[in-house]
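Quick one, probably user error.
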């Protein structure tokens, strides 16, 4: 999932840069500046060194901001889910080891009981 999120973010940055360059070429004199603005806006940093001043430029900016916050939320959820999954896997492994130890202990106890019963039966007439 993470690679798709990175690819979507990169693609959106390039696309948003292109769109804002086309509709607001006064504030974004070249594609590089437009992509820079899109990436900074997607990352919710917003340096303010380059900003759209036209209505449509602001509309694109608003969409990029909302999508950036959403993508960051997904990223945080993915990372959190990964760590929770690791903890659950470790817990399951510890529980499995504990069950295996208990089985070994139970077998050993049963063997000792069987040996005692055998010794008792041997003493009976």
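Nope, works fine. Designed sequence:
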């Amino acid at each position: 999932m993470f690679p798709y999120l990175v690819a979507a973010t990169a693609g959106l940055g390039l696309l948003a840069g292109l769109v804002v360059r086309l509709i607001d070429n006064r504030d974004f004199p070249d594609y590089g500046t437009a992509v820079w603005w899109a990436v900074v806006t997607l990352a919710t940093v917003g340096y303010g060194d380059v900003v759209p001043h036209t209505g449509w430029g602001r509309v694109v900016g608003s969409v990029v901001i909302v999508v950036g916050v959403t993508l960051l939320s997904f990223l945080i959820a993915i990372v959190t889910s990964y760590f929770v999954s690791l903890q659950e896997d470790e817990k399951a492994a510890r529980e499995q080891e504990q069950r295996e130890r208990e089985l070994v202990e139970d077998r050993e106890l049963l063997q000792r009981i069987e040996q005692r019963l055998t010794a008792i039966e041997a003493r009976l007439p």
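The radius of gyration is 32 Å.
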